[in-house]
C-alpha cells in the first residue's frame, strides 16, 4: 500500500524538524538486542545496567563475575555467553526489516526515543517503530498525546463517543494512542488517523504483525500515516501475557488516559491504574448506573477521574481552547491556544451543554466485527491479566486520580502492593486470584504490582496461569 502524495502534503508531520533514529552499527545492534532479549532481565534492571556501566557494547563484553552482583550469575552467563544460531538469525531479520522504508529501531539514549516514556520507571530498552517517528513526540506547539481506550465489545453509543473524542483530539493536534484492539481502540485509531494529530498503535505482537486479523487494513494505514510501536521481537505472535505490558506503554506515552466504556473487569481499568502510577491523568465518560459497560467508567469517576461529557471538556483540561462556533465541526479549523503545557495544569470547569459535541460520522466499515471474534480477543486479554473475573474486588481502588501517588515500585522504594504481592508469592506457583485474596488489594492494584515485579525480572508466569519467583 502506498501513501497519497497530496494527503502527505496536507497532513504534515507533527514536528517541524524531521526526527530520525540513530543508525546502529552491527556490533551495537547485536548488543542492544542481546540485552533486550535476555530472559529474566527486564526493563528495570536493564536501565540500571545502562546507568551503571554505559552502552550495551560494553556490558555484553564484561566478565560474568562483574555483572553477577546486579543480575545474578545465571543471567550474567547468558547475557555475555556465545550467540546461538537462532539469535543470529533474529539479528539478520531485524537488519533486513530496518532496511525497509518507515521501519525504525529506537533505543534508550537516542534523541528519537519518546520523551514521555523516559518519565516512567520501566521504559522499554528498545522500540520497533513502523511509520512516523514524529508521532511519538510532542507536536510543534507542544500538543500532548492522549490514550483512548475501552471495551472490545463496544456498544454503538460507545463507538460514536470514541469517534467524536478521537476526531476532536486529532483535529486539535493531539496524538491519539491506543492498542489496535477491536471495538473502542479501532474506532479511535480510524477517527484520528487522517487528522493533524494522527494516531499511534502500541501492539502486543511484533511490529511486523497486525492483530487481530480484522484490523490488518487499519494497521497498514497506521504504519504509513501514524506509527505502530512494539517492544517485542519481530514475528512475535499475540500472547496473553503481552497485553499488560503493552498497556503500560500506552499509559506512559500519553499525558492522560480517556476511558470511553468499561465493565468492572475491563482491561481498560488496568491501563487507568497504570496511568495513575505513572502520574498521568485519567478521564472517563459517564453513563447510566444500569449499564454494565459503563460501570467501570462510573467507578473511575467516583474515585477521582475527571468526568468529561464532550470533547470540549477534555480539550479544556489539556489547555487547548476550541471556540464555540467551531465545536460543531469537530474543532478542525479552530484557532487553538495553549493555556498551560504543565502536566499538572489546573482543571477548568466543565461544559455541560449537549450541543457542544461535534457531528459524529458513520462508524468505519472495518469495525463491523463478528461477535465470536470479539469474544475471542476479549478472552485473551482476560487471560493475559490472569484476573479472577468473578471476584468483587477486581476493580480499581483509587486514592483520587490525577493527584494519586504511585502504588507501583518507584525509585523511592517499593509500594505496599508490590511488597504485599512479593510476600504472598512465597516460593510456590500462585494464581492471581489467590494473590488478590492473600493481599487484600483489589485486582487492578495486584495486577499492576505483578507487572512491576515482572518488569524487574523478579517473577515470571508458569504455564500461563501461576506466578513464581525467579530467584533473581
From TrEMBL:
<feature type="domain" description="DprA winged helix">
    <location>
        <begin position="415"/>
        <end position="464"/>
    </location>
</feature>
<dbReference type="InterPro" id="IPR057666">
    <property type="entry name" value="DrpA_SLOG"/>
</dbReference>
<dbReference type="Pfam" id="PF17782">
    <property type="entry name" value="WHD_DprA"/>
</dbReference>
<dbReference type="InterPro" id="IPR036388">
    <property type="entry name" value="WH-like_DNA-bd_sf"/>
</dbReference>
<dbReference type="GO" id="GO:0009294">
    <property type="term" value="P:DNA-mediated transformation"/>
</dbReference>
<feature type="compositionally biased region" description="Low complexity">
    <location>
        <begin position="356"/>
        <end position="371"/>
    </location>
</feature>
<feature type="compositionally biased region" description="Basic and acidic residues">
    <location>
        <begin position="379"/>
        <end position="388"/>
    </location>
</feature>
<feature type="compositionally biased region" description="Basic residues">
    <location>
        <begin position="334"/>
        <end position="352"/>
    </location>
</feature>
<dbReference type="InterPro" id="IPR003488">
    <property type="entry name" value="DprA"/>
</dbReference>
<feature type="region of interest" description="Disordered">
    <location>
        <begin position="331"/>
        <end position="409"/>
    </location>
</feature>
<comment type="similarity">
    <text>Belongs to the DprA/Smf family.</text>
</comment>
<dbReference type="Pfam" id="PF02481">
    <property type="entry name" value="DNA_processg_A"/>
</dbReference>
<dbReference type="InterPro" id="IPR041614">
    <property type="entry name" value="DprA_WH"/>
</dbReference>
<protein>
    <submittedName>
        <fullName>DNA-protecting protein DprA</fullName>
    </submittedName>
</protein>
<feature type="domain" description="Smf/DprA SLOG">
    <location>
        <begin position="105"/>
        <end position="318"/>
    </location>
</feature>
Amino acid at each position: 500500500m502506498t501513501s497519497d502524495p497530496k494527503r502527505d502534503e496536507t497532513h504534515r508531520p507533527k514536528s517541524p524538524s524531521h526526527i530520525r533514529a540513530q543508525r546502529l552499527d552491527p556490533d551495537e545492534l547485536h548488543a542492544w538486542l542481546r540485552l533486550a532479549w535476555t530472559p529474566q532481565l527486564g526493563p528495570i534492571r536493564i536501565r540500571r545496567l545502562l546507568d551503571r556501566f554505559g552502552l550495551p557494547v560494553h556490558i555484553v563484553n564484561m566478565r560474568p563475575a562483574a555483572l553477577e552482583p546486579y543480575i545474578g550469575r545465571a543471567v550474567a552467563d547468558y547475557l555475555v555467553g556465545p550467540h546461538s544460531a537462532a539469535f543470529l538469525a533474529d539479528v539478520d531479520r531485524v537488519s533486513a526489516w530496518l532496511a525497509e522504508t518507515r521501519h525504525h529501531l529506537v533505543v534508550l539514549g537516542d534523541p528519537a526515543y519518546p520523551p514521555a516514556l523516559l518519565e516512567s520507571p520501566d521504559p522499554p530498552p528498545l522500540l520497533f517503530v513502523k511509520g512516523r517517528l514524529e508521532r511519538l513526540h510532542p507536536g510543534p506547539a507542544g500538543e500532548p498525546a492522549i490514550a483512548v481506550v475501552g471495551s472490545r465489545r463496544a456498544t454503538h453509543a460507545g463507538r460514536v463517543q470514541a469517534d467524536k473524542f478521537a476526531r476532536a483530539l486529532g483535529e486539535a493536534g493531539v496524538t491519539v494512542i491506543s492498542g489496535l484492539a477491536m471495538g473502542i481502540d479501532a474506532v479511535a485509531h480510524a477517527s484520528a488517523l487522517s487528522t493533524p494529530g494522527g494516531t499511534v498503535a502500541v501492539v502486543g505482537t511484533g511490529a511486523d504483525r497486525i492483530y487481530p486479523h480484522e484490523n490488518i487494513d487499519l494497521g497498514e494505514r497506521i504504519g504509513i500515516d501514524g506509527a505502530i510501536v512494539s517492544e517485542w521481537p519481530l514475528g512475535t505472535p499475540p500472547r496473553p501475557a503481552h497485553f499488560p505490558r503493552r498497556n503500560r506503554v500506552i499509559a506512559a506515552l500519553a499525558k492522560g488516559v480517556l476511558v470511553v466504556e468499561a465493565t468492572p473487569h475491563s482491561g481498560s481499568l488496568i491501563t487507568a491504574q497504570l496511568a495513575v502510577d505513572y502520574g498521568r491523568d485519567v478521564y472517563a465518560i459517564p453513563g447510566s448506573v444500569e449499564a454494565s459497560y459503563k460501570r467501570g467508567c462510573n467507578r473511575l469517576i467516583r474515585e477521582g477521574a475527571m468526568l468529561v461529557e464532550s470533547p470540549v471538556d477534555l480539550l479544556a483540561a489539556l489547555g487547548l481552547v476550541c471556540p464555540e462556533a467551531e465545536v460543531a465541526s469537530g474543532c478542525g479549523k479552530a484557532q487553538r491556544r495553549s493555556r498551560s503545557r504543565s502536566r499538572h495544569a489546573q482543571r477548568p470547569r466543565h461544559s455541560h451543554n449537549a450541543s457542544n459535541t461535534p457531528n459524529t460520522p458513520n462508524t468505519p466499515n472495518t469495525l463491523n466485527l463478528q461477535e465470536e471474534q470479539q469474544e475471542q480477543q476479549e478472552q485473551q486479554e482476560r487471560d493475559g491479566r490472569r484476573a479472577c473475573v468473578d471476584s468483587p474486588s477486581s476493580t480499581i481502588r483509587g486514592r483520587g486520580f490525577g493527584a494519586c501517588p504511585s502504588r507501583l515500585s518507584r525509585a523511592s522504594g517499593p509500594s505496599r502492593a508490590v511488597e504485599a504481592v512479593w510476600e504472598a508469592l512465597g516460593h510456590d506457583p500462585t494464581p492471581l486470584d489467590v494473590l488478590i485474596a492473600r493481599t487484600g488489594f483489589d485486582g487492578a492494584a495486584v495486577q499492576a504490582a505483578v507487572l512491576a515485579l515482572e518488569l524487574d525480572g523478579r517473577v515470571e508466569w508458569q504455564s500461563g496461569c501461576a506466578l513464581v519467583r525467579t530467584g533473581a
